Amino acid sequence: ELLKVDGVQETIAGYTGVPNYNGKPPSYESVCFGRQWVEGVRVIYDDDQITYPQLLNEFWNKHEAKIGSRQYAAIIFPQNDQQSQQAQAWLQANDQTVRTSDGYPASLVQIEPASP
User: CA dihedral defined by 102, 87, 79, 55, rounded to 10 degrees?
Assistant: First the structure.
């Protein structure tokens, strides 16, 4: 779905969530049972066509977070300090308006450091 957004050039699916993983990829089971890793999507985009906050809005509109499931959690992994600040501002601005399809508030959204 994100590939349909103007300015998004590429998406790469994989796993993320642990800064020090010793080069070992996670097993599917470790992701499913919430052992540190989460499924993730790296989004390559043209910031002349879409801003990072706009991209966060697109992410939220296309993602359904699940309570109690780290695998399907809504976690933003900023790549630098500027993105981290923008993600925090986006979360604060949307705290009262962003809801999951189940009606849960945006507090489901977490911001964590990106792993390599």
Answer: 70
Give the strand pairing for 38-45 and 74-76: unpaired
Tokens of 46: 């043209």
Helix or strand holding residue 10 (H, E): strand 8-16
What is the block-wise mean pLDDT of the chain (116 residues), using blocks of 10 residues? 92 72 66 67 93 90 63 78 92 66 62 74
What lies within 8 Å, CB to CB, of 17 at 6+ separation is 36, 37, 38, 40, 70, 75, 77, 112, 115
Q: Is 85 helix (H, G, I), strand (E, B) or coil?
A: helix
